[in-house]
Design a protein that fits this description.
507 residues; 6 strands; alpha+beta; 71% helix; two-stranded antiparallel ribbon; 14 helices
């Protein structure tokens, strides 16, 4: 502890020896610092709080839309046009602002306006202004007037601007709907023209490929039906050929003649042959045996002339033959028509490939345009409904909770703290420079320092003898030093008094 105490005494003595240098540097540092602090313009801040209540008749996002509208207006308050509107109507408490003051105020407001949300329905608007060419009292009035004007613009933009925004939205949607409807009509007309040029005379529906597939599938089915119809007609022709057109009148009572039985057996034989039975088939062999027996009996004179009558079986078979011939003719005509259609479709596929590409592209464009049109139509109906509801009800309600305040003291800078900091810093810097200067000089304060520096033992020291004349001179120098040193806190107190007077004038 004794060593530390000794070192402290040595440092203080070193500073004391350079006290004039320390005082001069402290004065210079403080003067420069105080001038800079006093030249910094005071910034005054005015604040207000607004309650914004958003309500809607709808629960499908209308409140969120209104909230987005409030946020949009809140962000637009710092735009250049809004700031110009504010500056044109703001005064400094005594007179309107000059053009130079207005330009300075616009530059200060760009970064001096802050709007923050406090909770769900509270907004705080703060305006901080710092102007060099205007007094602090006028700056405080301007800060309050700007805040009041911002609140007024905020409410007007939301109450009046929302209706104008709804009208603009509806107008925009109507224009877009009209444009999309025209585009749809153009695409429809081009599709119809391509369809007429490519598919106008072709049977079926769909694209060329779809129509070709449909025609070919129908032809395959038609060929099978046509084969069956021809086979059925051939069988009917064979059966009709084996059936006599007239029969003896006696067969009506149920008694069969030899000729009738022969005719029946010949009809059965013809039907068997039409079915593809060969001569070795048992039924065919049996029928031919019966025919030989009946013909032999007839040759022996087993028949006599009898009256003839129309055969009802022949008449029935004849009508069935006509029906099957008509069916075959119809199928044949349909097949010829399909063959011509397939040929025509194939020619169109070869001659109009670009039309198919255009048709596919137009179909895609039409689907996209139709979807966009339906979306715009839905949005337009929703916007119109919300616009009608907004016009009949108050969607957003505003209430000023805290009126714009007139600031009593500057928000920045804190000159009291800065002036004090400059005084302390000047004193420390002056003392530090004096101590450094003393360490660079070849002066030893104690015999221990001399012995340590020279490496030789110090036998003793001689005290300074001060005469009365020297004492009087030193006393006079001390008075001068004390006066100069006392001037430093005196200047500090004077500046603090000036700052206090400014605050009183503002309030």
């Amino acid at each position: 502890m004794e060593a530390i105490y000794t070192e402290i005494r040595i440092a203080l003595y070193a500073i004391w020896r350079m006290r004039w240098l320390a005082l001069a540097i402290a004065w210079g540092f403080c003067l420069v610092g105080w001038v800079m602090v006093m030249r910094v313009p005071a910034a005054y801040e005015s604040s207000a709080r607004i309650q914004v209540q958003v309500k809607s008749l709808f629960a499908d996002g209308a409140e969120s839309d209104m909230q987005k509208n409030v946020d949009r207006v809140r962000q637009s308050l710092t735009s250049t046009e809004t700031l110009k509107r504010v500056v044109r109507t703001v005064s400094n408490g005594e007179r309107p602002l000059t053009s130079f003051e207005s330009l300075s105020l616009i530059g200060a407001l760009r970064s001096g306006i802050s709007i923050t949300a406090q909770g769900e329905d509270l907004l705080e608007i703060k305006t901080r202004i710092s102007l060099k060419s205007i007094s602090e009292q006028q700056t405080a009035f301007i800060a309050r007037n700007v805040t009041a004007k911002l609140i007024e613009i905020f409410i007007q933009e939301n109450v009046i601007g929302s209706k104008a925004n709804n009208a603009e939205t509806l107008n925009f949607l109507d224009q877009e709907l009209a444009r999309r409807a025209k585009e749809l009509a153009d695409v429809d007309r081009r599709r119809a023209q391509i369809a007429q040029d490519t598919l106008g005379s072709l049977p079926g529906s769909g694209t060329l490929e779809q129509r070709m597939d449909s025609a070919r599938n129908e032809m395959m089915s038609l060929e099978s039906g046509l084969m069956q119809a021809r086979s059925s007609l051939a069988a009917m022709n064979g059966q009709l050929a084996a059936t006599p057109a007239q029969i003896p009148a006696g067969t009506v009572g149920g008694i069969d003649t030899i000729d009738q039985r022969i005719s029946q057996l010949e009809g059965q034989l013809s039907e068997a042959v039409s079915r593809g039975w060969t001569e070795k088939h048992p039924d065919v062999i049996a029928i031919r045996a019966q025919l030989r027996q009946l013909r032999a009996e007839k040759a022996r004179g087993g028949t006599r002339d009898v009256p003839m009558a129309p055969n009802p079986v022949y008449v029935s078979l004849k009508s069935m033959q006509a029906e099957r011939e008509g069916n075959v003719a119809a199928l044949q005509a349909r097949r010829d028509q399909l063959e011509r259609a397939v040929t025509l479709i194939a020619q169109r596929q070869v001659s109009a490939p670009s039309a198919q590409i255009d048709q596919a592209r137009l179909d895609r464009d039409y689907d996209v345009l139709r979807e966009q049109y339906n979306k715009l139509l839905t949005q337009r109906e929703g916007a119109k409904l919300r616009s009608d509801a907004t016009g009949k009800t108050d969607g957003v309600q505003f209430r000023v909770i805290d009126q714009p305040s007139l600031p009593k003291q500057p928000a920045a800078p804190n000159r009291t703290m800065l002036l004090t900091a400059v005084l302390i810093a000047g004193t420390v810097v002056g003392a530090g420079v004096a101590f450094a200067k003393s360490q660079l000089s070849n002066v030893y304060t104690t015999t221990q320092q001399l012995a340590k520096a020279s490496g030789l033992p110090v036998l003793g020291s001689i005290s300074e003898v001060i005469t009365s004349e020297t004492r009087a001179i030193r006393r006079k120098q001390m008075m001068w030093f004390s006066s100069a040193a006392a001037g430093l806190p005196g200047m500090f107190m004077l500046l603090m008094l000036i700052e206090f007077v400014k605050r009183i004038m503002v309030s």
